[in-house]
Amino acid sequence: MAGTRRGSLRARLTAGVVLLAAGGMVAVNAVSLIGLRLNLVDAADATLAKARATVQHRVRDRAAPVDGAGLDSLVPDGFYVALVDDRGRVVAQTSARDLSGRRRARPDLPAPVPDGFADRPRTLPARGAPVPRYRTRTFRLNRPATIRPARGAPPRRFERVVVAKSLQPADDVVYWLIGADTAATLAALGGIVLLSRGVLRVGLRPLREMAATATAVADGAIDQRIEVAGHHSEVGEVATALNRAFDERQRSEEQLRQFVANASHELRTPLTTIRGWAQLHLHGLAQDPALVERAMERIEGEAARMHATVEELLLLARLDQGRPLDDAPVNLGALADDAAADARVRDPGAPVTVEVRGEVFAAGDEDRLRQVLQNLLGNALRHTPPGTPIAVTARALPDGTAELTVSDEGPGMSPRTAARVFERFYRGEEARAPAAGGTGLGLSIVKSITEAHGGTVTVRTAPGEGSTFTVRLPAAR
Ligand SMILES: Nc1ncnc2c1ncn2[C@@H]1O[C@H](COP(=O)(O)OP(=O)(O)OP(=O)(O)O)[C@@H](O)[C@H]1O
Ligand SMILES: [Mg+2]
C-alpha cells in the first residue's frame, strides 16, 4: 500500500491520534496559562496592598508631606497613584512620564471617581489603549490629608487614594508563554503525526498480510494460511479465526469433492452392469431366452438399486439444505412395533424383540423417523449372522428426551470402523463385498435425520460384543 489513502484506517487513526493529542495539549496549555495569569494578578494585588501601606504612612508623615513631584517617588516604577477629594475629583496623580522620560499610560479612571470605586482590586484598561491594563484599588484615609499639587499652587485636601499597578509585565509573560506554547504544541503535533504514521504502518502490517492471504485463498490457493506466530492480542485472534474459516472451507470443499466422487462411483457400477447386459442383447449374443430373461432381471435390479441410491442422495441433499421438518408428535413406540414387524416379515427367522416403556413421543416427521428405525434394523439384520437376537427399545428419559435403541448380539465393530460408520459412503470391511449390496449411506441418513430433528445418534460396540445404536430426540411439546 503506497502512501496513506484518504479514509483508510491508517489515515483515520492518525487523524484521531492527532486530534486527541491536540485537544489534550490545548487543554493543558489553557489551564496552565489561566493559572499563571490568576497567579500574576494575585501577586499584583499583594503588591497593591503593600503600596497602600507605604502611601498611607507617607501622606500622614507631617515631617515629609507629599507634594505633586513627591508623588512619583512614593511608589516604584510601573505604579500609578491618584489622590481623590471628597467630590471624586483627582487632586494629584503620578506624572505621565516615567523617570527616563518615556510616556506611560494611565488607568482609565471614571470622572468623578464614584464613592466605593475599586474598594476591592479590579482591572481597568489604560486610557486610550486596551493594553497595558491596570490592577486598581482605592482606599480611604482615616482623616483627610492635604497636598500642594504644584509649587505655588494652593494646597488641596484629599481623602481617597487610588493605587494601580500595570499588568504589562504579567501580560508580557502570558503572551510570551502563549507564543512559546503554540510553537511547542505545533512541533509536538508534527512529531506525533510522523511517529504515529510510522507506528501505524508497522502495527497495521499484519492486517495487510491477512488481506493478502485471504485474497490468495479466495483466488484458489486454498491451502495458504496466515502466520499466527508472533501476533498476539486482537490481531492474533483475527488471524486464528480467519485460518479456522479457511480450514473449514477447505474441509467442506474436500468433503464435497469426495461426496461427488463417491456418488459417481456408486452410480457407475450399476450403470456399467446395465450397459453390459444391454450391449449383449443388442449384439444378438443373448439368443437363449433364459439369458435374455437373466439380462432383463439384472437390468431391472441394477436400475432399482440406482433409483434407491439416487433417492438417498436426494434425501441427504434436502436434509443438508436444513429445510424445516414437520414437528408433529410422533409415537415412537408404535414406530418401533411397526419396524420390528417389518423386519420379521423380511427375515422370518429373526428373533426381534420390542420393549416400549410408557408413552414415548417425539416431535418430528413420522416418515423420516420411520426411516431411521428401518435403516438401523436393516443394518442389524444385514451385518449380523442369521438368527442373531435383535432388540428394539423406546422410552422417555426423565429430562423429557425420547430415546430409541436398536441393539444386536452380532459380531460388533472394531473401534476404527465404529468411528467412521456415520460417514457418507462408508462401509465396513465385510460390507464392502459387492454381494452385500449397500451403498454406505444408511447410517449417514440416520445421522442427518436425527440431527435435523435436533437429536443425536451414537453407537456402542466392540468386536464380538454386538452393537447398540442409540437415538435421542427432543420430546414432543
Ligand atoms: N449392526 C451392525 N453390526 C455390525 N456392523 C454394522 C452394523 N451397522 C452398521 N455396521 C457397519 O457400518 C457400515 C455403515 O453402515 P451403513 O448403514 O451406513 O451402510 P451399509 O449398511 O453398508 O449400506 P446401506 O447404505 O445400504 O445402509 C456398514 O457397512 C457396516 O460395516
Ligand atoms: Mg445400512
Keywords:
477 residues, alpha+beta, Helix Hairpins, Heat Shock Protein 90, 3 domains, five-stranded antiparallel beta sheet, five-stranded mixed beta sheet, 10 helices, 50% helix, 18% strand, binds adenosine-5'-triphosphate, binds magnesium ion, phosphoprotein
Itemize the secondary structure elements and their pairings.
Blueprint: H1 9-60, H2 70-74, E1 79-84, E2 90-93, E3 122-126, E4 129-147, E5 156-166, H3 168-203, H4 205-218, H5 233-282, H6 289-321, E6 328-331, H7 332-346, E7 352-357, E8 361-364, H8 366-382, E9 390-396, E10 402-408, H9 415-420, H10 442-452, E11 456-461, E12 467-473
Parallel strand pairs: 7-9
Antiparallel strand pairs: 1-2, 1-5, 3-4, 4-5, 6-8, 9-10, 10-12, 11-12
Helix pairs in contact: 1-3, 4-5, 5-6, 6-10, 7-8, 8-10
The chain binds adenosine-5'-triphosphate and magnesium ion.
Question: How would you describe this protein?
Answer:
The chain is an alpha+beta fold. It folds into three domains: 62-167; 233-318, Signal transduction histidine kinase, dimerisation/phosphotransfer (DHp) domain (Helix Hairpins, Orthogonal Bundle); 325-473, Histidine kinase-like ATPase, C-terminal domain (Heat Shock Protein 90, 2-Layer Sandwich), CATH 3.30.565.10. The chain contains ten helices and twelve strands. It has helices spanning 9-60, 70-74, 168-203, 205-218, 233-282, 289-321, 332-346, 366-382, 415-420, 442-452, and strands at 79-84, 90-93, 122-126, 129-147, 156-166, 328-331, 352-357, 361-364, 390-396, 402-408, 456-461, 467-473. The protein has a five-stranded antiparallel β-sheet. A five-stranded mixed β-sheet has the order 7-9-10-12-11. A hairpin with an 8-residue loop joins strand 4 and strand 5 (156-166). Helix 6 packs parallel to helix 10 (442-452), helix 7 packs parallel to helix 8 and helix 8 (366-382) packs antiparallel against helix 10 (442-452). The protein is rod-shaped. The mean pLDDT is 87. The structure holds adenosine-5'-triphosphate and magnesium ion. Magnesium ion binds at residues 375, 378-379, 438, 442.
